[in-house]
Amino acid sequence: MENTLIEKQLKAAADLNRIKLLACMKNGEVCVCDFVDVLGISQPAVSQHLRKLKEAGIITERKVGTWKHYRLVEEQTPLMKGILEQIQPLTGCNCETDCCHVGGNSNE
Amino acid sequence: MENTLIEKQLKAAADLNRIKLLACMKNGEVCVCDFVDVLGISQPAVSQHLRKLKEAGIITERKVGTWKHYRLVEEQTPLMKGILEQIQPLTGCNCETDCCHVGGNSNE
DNA sequence: TCCTTATATAAGTATTTGCTTATATATAAT
DNA sequence: ATTATATATAAGCAAATACTTATATAAGGA
Q1: Shortest CA–C1' contact from B17: which nucleotide?
Q2: What is the pLDDT of residues A26-36, one digit of tens each?
Q3: Closest to B7 (Cβ–Cβ): which among A3, A6, A19?
Q4: Is A56 an interface residue toward B (CB < 8 Å)?
Q5: Are the beta carbons of B13 and B49 closer than 8 angstroms?
Q6: Long-range contact list for B51-59, CB < 8 A, 24+ apart?
Q7: Is A13 at the interface with chain B, CB within 8 A?
Q8: Does the distance separating the beta carbons of A87 and B83 come in below 8 Å?
């Protein structure tokens, strides 16, 4: 693993909001709309963070209708494996069970 | 290990010049003057990078006359252990054997 | 003491970053 | 076709970053 790739992945991970995104995704797939609630920043800001993580090869996406589900890629570099192990999980952002306010347990 | 400390250490490590500094220190103690040659940036720039790594608890220092020897702290966090493992070693910066142009194998 | 050397700090600046609001794109529903 | 929803992209801006040069500090030697 080259130092320039290490730099790219470290830069992608070195932000508290993106650390929280990664923490959420440790629980499974998450939608952009859920992240907005979790981080308290705008939807475009979330999109930009996710793009940075995607460009570093850390996450990938899946389109479901108008939604987009993001998740950690399966084959992480040794560097990212170590980092992801250390990131503390975040509750309240599990897309599997309550994605995009669909499923009947939302009050909107 | 809290996510805010993780952020601090990731931010400290997420720079190619600082990655090179860490790579050098994997070989042992290094002086500021040696880093200047290795990185090709000014001495104050090196000092500032080293301060950032020190403030993140990643490195420590030892004063020897007018020189200052920097080295990795012994008790690294699990996060930094993983990162340091992945950083590729850099040759030409081993302070133990050729520190600050002292030792007779310099041509100045 | 004065001068030199090694390093740190200060101040200034260009670049990068992380947000914002506004707009574009894509899908679904009416 | 029109409208609504979810996400992405564009543009602009404030804050952070990484350098520079100039200066301060500290130790050693003449």
Answers
A1: D18
A2: 988 998 888 99
A3: A19
A4: no
A5: no
A6: B52/B12, B52/B18, B53/B12, B53/B13, B53/B18, B53/B21, B53/B22, B55/B12, B56/B8, B56/B9, B56/B11, B56/B12, B56/B13, B57/B9, B58/B9, B58/B12, B58/B13, B58/B22, B59/B22, B59/B25
A7: yes
A8: no
What domains, with CATH codes, occur in chain A? Answer: 3-99 (1.10.10.10)
Tally of CB atoms within 10 A around A8:
18
The answer to whether the CB atoms of B10 and A6 lie below 8 A apart is no
Token code pair at residue A61: 């996406």
Whether B16 contacts chain A with CB within 8 A? yes
Residue-wise pLDDT tens digits, A22-81: 999 998 899 888 899 889 999 999 999 999 999 999 999 999 999 999 999 999 999 999
Which single residue is written with the structure tokens 């966090």? B77
